[in-house]
Amino acid sequence: MSTLRLKRRRDVGKQRGQFAAVLVTVVIGVAMFAGTFNAYLNLGASLDGTYDRLRMADMTVADADDGFIDTAASITGVDDVAERQVADVPMAAGEFTFVGRMIGIPAGPGPTINQFDVDEGQDLDSDDPSGVLLETHAASDFDLDVGDTFEILGQEVTVRGIVTSPEYLWPAQDRQNIFTAPKSFGVAFVSDEWFTVLDGETVSNEVLIVYDDGADTESVDADVSAAARAASAGDIQALADQPSNATVNLEITALQTMAVALPVLFLTAAGMAIYVVIARLVYSQRAVIGTLRASGFSSRQMAAHYRSFGLAVGLIGAAIGSLLGGLMARGMTAIYTAVFGIPDLVASFHLPTVLMALSFGAVAGLLAAVAPARAVAKLPPAEAMRGDLTPADGRRSIFETLIPPLRRAPVRWLMSLRGIGRNKKRSASMIGGVMLGMVLIMGAWGMLDTMLASFDRQFNEVAIEDSTVAFVEPVTDETIESVEAVEGVAVAEPVVGLRATVVNGGESYTTLLEAYRPDTQVHGFDPELPPSGTLLGEAMRDLLDVSAGDVVTLQLPDLEIDLTVEVAGFVDEPMTTMAYLSSDALDTAVDAAGVDSSTLSGPAFTTVRTIFDGEREVTIAALRDLDGVAAVVDSSEIRDLIESFQVFFYLFVGFMLLFGGAMAFALIFNIISVNVSERRSEFASMRANGLSHRRVARLIVGETCLLTAIGIVPGLVAGYVAAVAFVNTFASDQFPISAQLRWFVYVGTIAAMFIVAALSLLPAIRAVKRIDVAAVVRERST
Amino acid sequence: MDDSVAVRASGLTKTYGEGDTAVHALRDVSFEIPRGEFVVLQGASGSGKTTLLNQIGALEPPTSGDVEANGFRLNGLDDVGRTEYRLTSVGFVFQFYNLVPSLTAYENVALIAELTGNQVRERTERALASVGLGDRMDHFPGQLSGGEQQRVSIARGLVKDPPLMLCDEPTGALDTETGTQVLTLLREITDGGDRTIIVVTHNSEIAKIANRVIDLRDGMIIETAEVTSPLHPTEVAW
């Protein structure tokens, strides 16, 4: 080992606390990159693997004209097509009645597209007409095993097998309801014979289309969509818009963002910490540097020596971080694939990611050491050896210039005020550390608070119904009265729901149209539901390039009519993007289009939404006992589901607090340690002159609190921007949330930063207490 | 302790380390220093003079023995007591000044004045005026010469009006002319008063301005000499 390497090892040993803090920051940054980026790649690969194996449809077209399937098959880039029937029908399992989705599949060989894994039991068999396959989420929600029975359309069926379907990895009922209440929805795969008993209104005929490997998806999507529109398709859904896939992809996109954003934050913090530590090392070793230069070492050799500190800590941190990141990636991939029930787990550790992680660590360390190393190269040996007794320049702080009465403050206050200007780069690093910590904490916390606030708004201000009751027969005034008569029901209103495509010029958006009574009490509208004209979800403003007062077309495939309506305004609803009309306006428009508006009361279109004033469970049970009820969806179930997620949300925030805190701690700890080490003689002199170590500690606490407070101001702005960016990562037309940070996020983040600063101070305060006053007062300050 | 005695040391021993590596910095040192004297502790490097000064200033505890000064018995004091002693009884002057660079001359002195009573401004200005820096009070240390910085550090010690000033090589970092000015100042603040000044130096010429010279070698006092006619600082050269 060369002597300089030996020196480096011992120098690091002497400042092991500071180098350890830097190392931890690099390790966390690199581990986060390696972990999240690998998890992102693995989750994508797992999903793609499942889709490929089970031949997930690239496009699904519903209710197109006859002959579309042949047209689709002939489109360049299309590999395979298949037809199937789908219907949402009443189902019942034990005490629960719900709207289930019945998907027809050919008995025997099974589907060729949108296949599934039979996890338990066996495939359909034409010799077992009452046997059905149940999607795994429904089996779990309703506690059904192979051999158990439940009802479809009032007929008892037996669970022949339990399956995992790529279409329902995330069990969303449709794009407008990605959070579906447990026990309110389920999917059963049945033989095609089941559909012969249903009327055409209820059944949707779907064409599933798989593209060639390597096909230009965008181009084929466009060709198929054009053909589907020409064939008057009711719904055209590309894989990207498929509810389950879109939800899982939101998570993958968020992982991708985290894989870039978090490591950048940590490596920036690590870089600043490395800079602070090496700059201090160079300053304190000026005499050594001068002596070595005088002894024959070139300036290049000396600069390389000090650069090697940064490089070494960066590389060692990156190596440890890569290993930890590998483990983290396996764990994260396993958790994600388990949460989404992705059957094909790909958990490989990608070599390019390792190389990138190592490069990031090395580059961060090297860049941070460049400036101190350059200072070494420029140091004249004679001056360095002589040492410098000239004190650093002193000046009044900007606070005293701005507020002159401050000059009369006690001197110990002035010391704290001026302390922040003594080493501007170091103070800037500390402010930067506070900002980075706040970006991480506020970004994560703000994003989750936005979600919780959005859920709260959705279920307490927008969708305020307590239950939705579906019937097997048309909903009439008598039906409404029967619901109102149930004890515990305060309000009962019919709500019409129709599949709709909103068209403005060349742009279109497929969604649901809901029609409410003009004076509805079951849905909160802001602005109020107008007597005429439609309210559109806010996301459509950009998607369709439409403004209030424009006229749009509502294509209603269920009624096979198009309505032309004026856009009366936009509603900002956090969890859905729909179109709304008053029921009177819909009736009038439908009649004018030549369709009997009484059709709307059909069970496929109209449900009854209620608000309770009695005990929930008793009222729900009474509603289920009403004649002709197909399903009762208890709105509290979805609220409970979301509340159950909150534990995980806060765990996530806790981790971010931990990581953000650790990052800020590492940087602030290093800066304070360096500060105390540089001012040992000054503090020792104060101690000799009668200041207790507590008074000296209070000076350092004052400076640190002041710098933390200064960092908090831009930190709040940067944190808010980060939260908005994180929220936008998750936002989509299905989930059109916008950042809403409540007061406690700001207060909590500020408190967290002060706690981190306080913790970072503890070692420094101990160091002040341990200063050997007798020895230090005789030293030249370095 | 007799009121005429400023400092009394008895059986003072200070050992650093232990076993084969033990360094005996002071070996059973006993002496008395009368109030109002200018005393020089001199000796070669490693003789124990700074260690003795640190003992008198309560900067570190002795291994055995005791020091009495200004009504304090230092050996029994905890950290709080030692801090209180230094605050009320001792002014320090160090070779490298150790001023706070971010504070002006006035503020460096006022920092200590604020801890030791009222009339901070008056006392601070008086202390700075007494060292000849009445017109340099708003200057930062970086704007002052070495001699001026040392005078600020003397004012910082004086502002508490301590009965004892302890100076460790106060001219060690200064040229001859500036050193002479500093010594003259130190001499002036004892002449005709009760304040006792103890100066550590390895420079035997400085001993000529003292009332009393204590010679140390290998941690022991080898000679204590009273100087009947001390020279004025301007009369010595080194």
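Residues 176-190 of chain B form the longest helix (15 residues).
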